[in-house]
Amino acid sequence: MPKAIRISRVGGPEVMEYVDVEVGAPGPGEVHVRHAACGLNYIDVYFRNGAYQQALPAGLGMEASGTVVAVGEGVTHLQPGDRIAYAAQPPGAYAEERVMPAKQVVKLPAAIDFDTGAAMMLQGMTVQYLFNRTYPLRGGETILFHAAAGGVGLIACQWARAMGVTMIGTVGSDEKAELAKAHGCAHVINYNKENFVERVKEITGGAGVPVVYDSIGKDTFIPSLDCLAPLGMLVSFGAASGPVPPFGLQELASRGSLYVTRPSLFTHIAKREALEEIAADLFRMVESGKVKIPVNQRYALKDVAQAHRDLEARKTTGSTILLP
Asked: In terms of CATH, what superfamily is 139-262?
């Protein structure tokens, strides 16, 4: 029988179990896929520890690549043998095989290998919607992006450079600073050595930036507001350090009529047309060579607990995949 990761309770990495699962035939609108690789993302930690709730027992994992085994009634955009990739709800990508909604699955171009496909869908489509939909960049801006050496961050470094955007990135070590620079980040701030608010003001001549992209949450939220120019926008798209605590709206007014938004990839790709558009743009960037997907860690699927420990300890850089 195929293997998969399941949880019956929330908690630390130890709650994940490597078990046999039965994968039935796909129903109407569904597809049966065999995974070649599965992506690891911080959202998986949120589901595992209970920060994001789901009915238990449950699977984990939001993205993978692989091959179509069978399609259910009404599925016309896929057929058995197609190479595919996805980032989708509900969780369950940590598996050798699964049945899932076909509308969330796209064909993977022949030029993109399975490891890259599994590593890039959630993170790459996140950068696409952040830069093109949430706060649309036109080129010429100077922006602040936290966790610049992470999976999303290294893609953002390259994408910003390709768009003609000057990216200021924050990282937690000198090694991560070099990595971000190597991927196109124009200015890198080690927040363990420097005050990133002061450095952003210095880099921008005191003006601040029009937008901050922040996946850290609690530890960076208020300082990020202090980096914004009047009428600027803080895009809070994650909470690696914990959820943002309650704050008064006067915090925004007193700093210059600021905006704050909390977007989600899954809202942006809920409609099939939008998913196709966002995925196609990501594929174009990768196929052109403007964005390379750094797969810096690989773990066997059965070793997922160690992968989660390393992710939470911020020991990983770039993208991480699990191999069934």
From this structure: NAD(P)-binding Rossmann-like Domain (3.40.50.720)
